[in-house]
Specification:
Rossmann fold, alpha/beta, about 400 residues, 2 domains, 17 helices, about 15% strand, formyl-coa transferase, domain 3, seven-stranded mixed beta sheet, 14 strands, three-stranded antiparallel beta sheet
């Protein structure tokens, strides 16, 4: 659907864009949810028994998986068996009128189902086809199964996370999935913009492994610049900024970052350690990186003398970046989070009121919105099929053959 050069009133930026979503679990669903938040009509197609994300848990809310709820708002749902010929025919009828198709199958599964890009463009030459894979479309691991923890291990991030004495340590959130989903959304929007200019669709490819490597760009650059594996750093400090980490105070932990001259001077004043400002070993950030092991214990010892709140109050007066380390209960009690609309509560047909993370991207003219809760399996099957010209008789026959579910 082209809207270029047309003066139409839209409330959300992607209104009128139809997305067929075959993805499951997290990377693909997060991608399409982001687009749905901005107004796209996301039609989620699931197996008639439900996608894997519905069963990922505990925890569950009224038998609905929190893992599914977190990534599937602003979508409508069809339960359709695309492994059958009739199911595949119906899927291709939907694709013929879509703007975007998103899937995150392994390449061999995609080929076996015969829903690859070369097949899809025969029915819709202008479609944007986004494939999210684990290891990429090429290479010896292209058909290897994997989930987030596998990519965190094979992508190096588990060797740079945690304290120096820790064994390989996973990042606490599924960061490979989340990064791949965001980059896939970026790729789709870029391809849509290109199509608006040229009328030409294209394939978008994103891998979880590649996305995780991109996320580590600063460490990757350091590795290629030095030829050495980046080490873990004590207390969460980074490789090229000192001090920039957490410290223990009299009653809890805080984070402090004083990597540039202004922040370094401010920190030394707050700590009552003005003699460190022009010490040749600590004067510049490269000096402090070189002499990290000598500097950090000096700072840490001083921080133990007062409470977290006392230190934060003093650091904020000097405009030194700092903050308390909060658990989730404290995070979502913070007025900063609520005032920036990062908490969304919506009514779910089965779970009642559910609360999700809000929309992080704010648009002045066409702000996204949470209009639909995560759908029940097959909740919109009949509604959507009728919109695409499927007759009541066809729907009844598909139900009889157990190809669809409503």
């Amino acid at each position: 659907m082209s809207i270029r050069n047309k003066k139409i009133k839209v409330h959300r930026a992607l209104e009128g864009i139809i997305i067929i979503d075959l993805s499951r679990l997290l990377s693909g669903p997060l991608c399409t949810m982001m687009l749905g938040d901005m107004g796209a009509d996301v039609i989620k197609i699931e197996p008639i028994d439900g996608e894997d994300g519905r069963f990922y848990g505990p925890p569950f809310i009224e038998d609905e998986s929190c893992a599914f709820l977190c990534a599937n708002r602003n979508k409508r749902d069809i339960a359709l068996d695309i492994t059958t010929e009739k199911g595949k025919e119906l899927f291709l009828r939907l694709v013929s009128k879509a703007d975007v198709v998103v899937e995150n199958f392994r390449p061999d599964i995609r080929e076996r189902l015969k829903i690859n890009y070369s097949k899809i463009i025969k029915y819709n030459p202008k479609v944007i086809y986004c494939s999210i894979s684990g290891f990429g479309e090429k290479g010896p691991n292209r058909e290897k199964p994997g989930v987030d923890v596998i990519f965190q291990g094979m992508g190096g991030i588990m060797t740079i996370t945690g304290e120096p004495t820790f064994p390989p340590t996973k990042v606490g959130t599924p960061v490979a999935d989340a990064t791949a989903g965001m980059l896939a959304a970026f790729g789709i929007l870029t391809a849509l913009f290109h199509r608006e200019r040229t009328g030409i669709g294209q394939k978008v490819e994103v891998s979880l492994l590649g996305s995780l490597l991109f996320l580590q760009s600063p460490l990757v650059a350091i590795y290629f610049g030095t030829g050495e594996n980046p080490p873990r750093y004590f207390s969460g400090g980074g490789p090229a900024a000192v001090p920039s980490q957490y410290f223990k105070t009299k009653d809890s932990y805080i984070t402090v970052s004083a990597f540039n001259k202004k922040f370094w001077i401010g920190l030394c004043k707050v700590l009552g350690k003005e003699e460190l400002i022009d010490d040749p070993k600590f004067r510049t950030n490269p000096d402090r990186v070189k002499n990290r092991e000598e500097l950090i214990p000096i700072i840490q010892k001083r921080f133990l003398e007062k409470s977290a709140q006392e230190w934060i109050a003093s650091l904020e007066k000097e405009e030194v970046p700092c903050g308390r380390i909060l658990n989730y209960k404290e995070v979502f009690s913070n007025p900063q989070v609520a005032m920036n609309e990062m908490i969304e509560t919506i009514d779910h047909p089965k779970c009642g009121k559910i609360t999700l993370a809000g929309i992080p991207v704010k648009l002045e003219k066409t702000q996204g919105a949470v209009k639909r809760p995560p759908p029940l399996l097959g909740q919109h099957t009949e509604e959507i099929l009728k919109e695409f010209g499927i007759t009541d008789a066809e729907i009844n026959e598909l139900l009889r053959l157990n190809i669809i579910r409503k």
